[in-house]
Amino acid sequence: MRRLFAFSAIAAAAMCAIPLSATAQTSFAATPLGAPAQPAAPAPDALSEAVVLSVNDEMISSYDIVQRMRLLIVTAGIQPSDQDLPELQREAVRSLVDEHLELQSLRHEEKEQKFDLIANDAEVDDYIGDIARSANTSPDKLIANLNAQGVATQTFRDQLKAELSWQDWIRGRYGQHLAIGDDQVKAFEKRQEAEAGKPHYHLAEIFIDAGRAGGMAAAEQGAAQLENELQKGAPFAGVARQFSNTPSAANGGDVGWIAAGEMPPEVDQALENLRPGQPSPPIEVKDGVYIVLVHDRRSGGASLVLKLKQLAIALPKTATPDDVTAAEAKLNEARGKMQGCENIEAVAAKMPGVVAGDLGEMEDKDLAPAFKSVVDGLPAGQVSAPVRTDVGVHIIAVCDRHSGSTNQLTREQIENRLMGEELAMISKRQLRDLRNSATIETR
Questions:
Q1: Which residues have CB under 8 Å from 231's CB, separation 6+?
Q2: What's the whole-model pTM score?
Q3: Based on CB atoms within 10 Å of each CB, which residue in 178, 286, 306, 358 is the most buried?
Q4: Does some domain include residue 11?
């Protein structure tokens, strides 16, 4: 699935004029990797000729880096200060290097396999069209607004081409060989059931990978600068989309509902004290730094939801004991003919005075005490003994019972989530191997 959710934030940012610092509005003089960026204002043609580094003999120019910095600024919705520019430059370089490695790998695969793997212009056009529609605009207006904020059309297209090509290849090359087994699904369901009583959080995340950033100190510095941008009002989804190093970046950092205990202990501890809508400060973990945002939270102890039907005989509160006994006997006779909820209406139709009713779904805590007393512990498909109320005598059929937590995933959702995790691990491992074997030289 293409990244429409995350790119709706990008499109929205692109449609607004985002004020930049004085330095960010000028051209940047690119410097060797890791060195502080200094503002300058040479002509674009001069910038385009300055080669900064090579990736397996493919050149990345200072113009490429400036353009990627502008794209990061606009699509993430940030307002960097002069002090933020060195880290922004490093992130621009990292992302450009990764994309060059990905496309080089795909071109090699194309030669080996004799068919196209890299997205063509028409596919990129379709993607831009999807992005524009998600922002209720046209592709031409989207591109025009990016251009107005200093982002060249080709810079935007190059990022999309690399992203589409790499994701499609990972999914096509490995997805068809991955099978999520019943044991994996059942293990997930068992864990999900065990966690039903824990607090749940609708969470978004930004993760700075220390290995990719160049060490824990660099990851901490990068996270601190992102925290500062968030405090200035940068949209969490936009920042996550461009800077986070987890698969959730594709969805603007949104990881959905998780139970307490699913994140690293350091993050779990911070969740307890966060208010909805409040980004956390940077949280250092073993292999990087998190910033998290709680969209919503739910307390533990999810209620039980029951789907119920009934057979009833109307009797006023003033009915005699003999009338009640006769009604109970008739309903017990009906019980003997019932097959759970399957034929309850058919049974009622053949017994004068007996009415069938669908009570729908309700939480067990909302059941009338008389009904609750007879269905507590009754498995799905079973029928209760007769119960007397002020309006009649009833038997209750339990058609289904399940956790009332909306956090529970369906089997299909579980399979998709597990498949996504597997593919993300493969993608990360592939890119790590490409970096380790690459020749990257600064000029």
A1: 279
A2: 0.65
A3: 306
A4: yes
Look at residue 234 and tell me if it is in a domain.
no
Name residues whose C-beta falls within 8 Å of residue 299's C-beta, 6 or more positions apart in sequence: 199
Query: Domain boundary at 180, 209, 236, which?
Result: 180
In the predicted structure, residue 65 carries a pLDDT above the cut 80: yes
CA–CA separation, 182 and 411 (whole Å): 10
Percent pLDDT > 90 in the chain is 53
Render pLDDT for 274-322 as a digit per residue (tens, 0 to 9): 888 889 999 999 999 999 999 988 766 556 778 899 999 999 999 999 9
pLDDT digits (tens, 9 = 90+) for 21-53: 333 333 333 333 233 333 333 333 434 458 889
Helix/strand/coil for 310:
strand
Residue 411's nearest CA partner among 174, 172, 170, 187 is: 187
* One domain, residues 167 and 312: no
Q: With respect to residue 62, please indicate whether it lies within any of the assigned structural domains.
A: yes
Mean pLDDT computed over every residue of the chain: 84
Judgement on whether residues 12 and 157 belong to the same structural domain of the protein: yes
- DSSP assignment of 413-438 equals HHHHHHHHHHHHHHHHHHHHHHHHH-
Residue 53 is part of which domain span?
A: 1-180
**In angstroms, what is the C-alpha Rg of the chain?**
30
CATH number at residue 56: 1.10.4030.10
The Cβ of residue 407 has, within 10 Å, a number of other Cβ atoms equal to 18
DSSP, collapsed to helix, strand or coil, labels residue 181 as coil
- 373: domain CATH number is 3.10.50.40
How far, CA to CA in Å, does 9 sit from each of 5, 153, 183, 240, 371? 7, 18, 37, 11, 49
Residues 167 and 315 reside in one and the same domain: no
Distances from the Cα of 200 to the Cα of 162, 179, 300, angstroms: 36, 29, 7
Calpha distance 333→318 (Å, rounded): 24
Domains of the chain: total: 2
